[in-house]
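Figure 6 in text form: structure in, sequence out.
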């Protein structure tokens, strides 16, 4: 089944070229089914790149998906054309009266700042609170996962001595969990971050469970006990050349950056990187959409009610 996205979105031609089934708005109106309604809060500076990466994965499932895009009104993006934001994005005020089957909150390059010093932190807290009652399932990614764990459960983040940068092997701890149904014993995930969350802090929260981790990159996937909130510390959505672009950028600026781990053959940046995470990424998003959104969400979204988290807020 297709992913329904706005007509003329820049991602459309890229996805069609990759044989992702894209349905234009006009055709979707003739379909006699209710698509899953998702909300994407895009906090990344290069919004067009990020939306393409995520739509690629959200569109690779048997389900019809309809996506709305929002950005924070309290911080004006500078790396995305204003005409793109006006045409394809809304603000939180525009969508706060709506209900969604699922929500995705992206990462952001602000992880080295204390949460409260992030320009849009107050607005993000309002959105995170709203998501508990207006989105049936929420998927938080990288800094979005750290922010969600901190806001909902008081879980802190810690500065790393060196950037966690590369493609790392992971294992599934909660083998019964449907999010990882069909996964191999070892799967790979890209990471690109300067901070981390720690197992001992997660284990202090009775309503949280660690689903997957890596001996090298630490905790990867965390879920609440009701499986309405998922927190992923990596970037499964990354393209084949995303880490290369980050490495080349920092190296050209003379910044201290190590060669991404397990990314280039022989750790040689002159050679094309090897993609080893795409299959797991597709399965992860398909499992989330199927088992925790489609199978669980009420058909009538106007009746959507979500219990507030019992964990103390910070």
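Output sequence:
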């Amino acid at each position: 089944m297709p992913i329904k996205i706005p007509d003329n979105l820049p991602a459309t031609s890229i996805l069609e070229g990759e044989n992702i089934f894209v349905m234009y708005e006009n055709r979707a109106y003739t379909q006699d089914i209710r698509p899953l309604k998702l909300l994407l809060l895009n906090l990344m500076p290069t919004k067009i790149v990020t939306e393409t990466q995520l739509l690629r994965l959200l569109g690779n499932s048997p389900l019809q998906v309809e996506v709305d895009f929002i950005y924070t009104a309290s911080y004006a993006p500078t790396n995305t054309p204003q005409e793109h934001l006006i045409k394809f994005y809304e603000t939180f005020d525009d969508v706060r009266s709506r209900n969604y089957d699922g929500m995705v909150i992206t990462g952001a390059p602000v992880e080295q700042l204390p949460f409260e010093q992030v320009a849009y932190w107050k607005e993000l807290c309002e959105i995170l609170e709203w998501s508990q009652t207006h989105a049936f399932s929420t998927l938080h990614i990288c800094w979005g996962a750290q922010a969600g764990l901190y806001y909902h459960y008081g879980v802190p983040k810690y500065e790393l001595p060196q950037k966690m940068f590369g493609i790392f092997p992971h294992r599934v701890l909660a083998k019964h969990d449907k999010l990882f149904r069909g996964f191999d014993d070892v799967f790979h995930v890209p990471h690109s971050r300067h901070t981390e969350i720690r197992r001992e802090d997660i284990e202090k929260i009775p309503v949280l469970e660690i689903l997957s981790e890596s001996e090298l990159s630490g905790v990867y996937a965390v879920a609440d006990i009701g499986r309405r909130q998922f927190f992923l510390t990596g970037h499964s959505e990354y393209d084949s050349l995303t880490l290369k672009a980050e490495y080349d950028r920092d190296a050209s600026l003379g910044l201290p950056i190590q060669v991404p781990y397990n990314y280039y053959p022989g750790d040689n940046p002159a050679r094309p990187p090897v993609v080893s995470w795409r299959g797991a990424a597709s399965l992860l998003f398909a499992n989330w959409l199927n088992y925790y959104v489609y199978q669980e969400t009420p058909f009538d979204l106007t009746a959507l009610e979500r219990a507030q988290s019992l964990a103390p807020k910070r």
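Caption detail: The CA atoms of residues 119 and 212 lie 31 Å apart.
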